[in-house]
Amino acid sequence: MLQVRSKSTSPASPEEGNSTAPVPAIADPVQPPNSSGLPTVSQSLFISETFSSRQGEGKLTGQESFFIRTSGCNLRCWFCDTPYASWQPTGQRQSIESLVQDAQAVFADKPASHRHVVLTGGEPLLGAAIEPLCHLFHQAGFHVTLETAGTIQRELPCDLLSLSPKLASSAPDAKQHPRWHQLHEQRRMPLNTMRYLIETAKDHQLKFVVSDRSQFDEIQSLVEQLEVHPSNVFIMPQGVSIDDLDAALPWLQPWTEQVGYHYCDRMQIRWYGNRRGT
Ligand code: SF4
């Protein structure tokens, strides 16, 4: 595991969040390179945390990566395991150049082929500066994984789109959170946006967190509608402990294998427990 580095946090607004640091002026993202070799840009994103760890889910499980978690989300899943980036978004503004520089510092003594960055959230597609950030990472030679619920269309280079559509059972309680229940239902499943993101990414995977057999039909229907090959589908058990993961194995793994999907433990929970920065 690489060294873990986390940024400080502070309160923010419900969606993308408030700025707590001076926000650089927004400039044209396409400018001549400066002395660092990167184009001159001055855009920022609201960042919950950055850290170095191993990817715990999907095709690149085990890959050492630099994770950038944006703060803020346009959905409100009741089971969200990063509420500090959705229900109560906290963080700070950080320029996209400094995010690339932080990632470069982590991999300074590694071969270029080891440069992996994971853009996650919250919802990383919420802030427009995610587009120039992806371009900067590509220009710096990084493999870019984008972890998203797929509800916002963006033009960006992405090596692995890790798409986690939110199923009907993800909605927050209608009585406790009436406004967010309505918004969540309106926003969670824009199929054409998801198709576009899949088509424009170099590679893709679909990830579903499953808590109940009743979700099987919905998952299979969605995989067919998005025309995703079963070998690109990863099924994970819902849970925050090793006991939860173990309890799901007997009923979830057989179905997953029967329909040709991959069963995917959430290895970060087995490796590090359910804690931030992993
Ligand atoms: S989309 Fe992801 S970050 Fe947003 S509320 Fe749902 S689980 Fe949390």
Please outline the helices and strands.
Elements: E1 44-54, E2 64-70, E3 92-95, H1 96-106, E4 116-120, H2 130-139, E5 143-148, E6 160-163, H3 178-187, H4 191-200, E7 203-210, H5 216-225, E8 233-237, H6 242-258, E9 262-263, H7 267-272
Parallel strand pairs: 2-4, 4-5, 5-6, 6-7, 7-8, 8-9
Antiparallel strand pairs: 1-2, 1-3
Helix pairs in contact: 1-2
The protein binds iron/sulfur cluster (SF4).
GO molecular function, one term: S-adenosyl-L-methionine binding
Binding site for S-adenosyl-L-methionine: 79-81, 122, 164-166
Family: Belongs to the radical SAM superfamily. 7-carboxy-7-deazaguanine synthase family.
What does this structure look like?
Helix content is 27%, strand content 19%. It contains 7 helices and 9 strands. Helix 1 (96-106) runs parallel beside helix 2. The protein has one domain (10-272): Alpha-Beta Barrel (TIM Barrel), CATH 3.20.20. Mean pLDDT is 85; it is low at 1-14 and 16-41. The N and C termini lie close together (9 Å). It has helices at residues 96-106, 130-139, 178-187, 191-200, 216-225, 242-258, 267-272, and strands at 44-54, 64-70, 92-95, 116-120, 143-148, 160-163, 203-210, 233-237, 262-263. With 278 residues, the chain is α/β, with parallel strands linked by helices. Bound molecules: iron/sulfur cluster. Iron/sulfur cluster is lined by residues 73, 75-77, 80, 82, 85-86, 121-123, 149, 166.
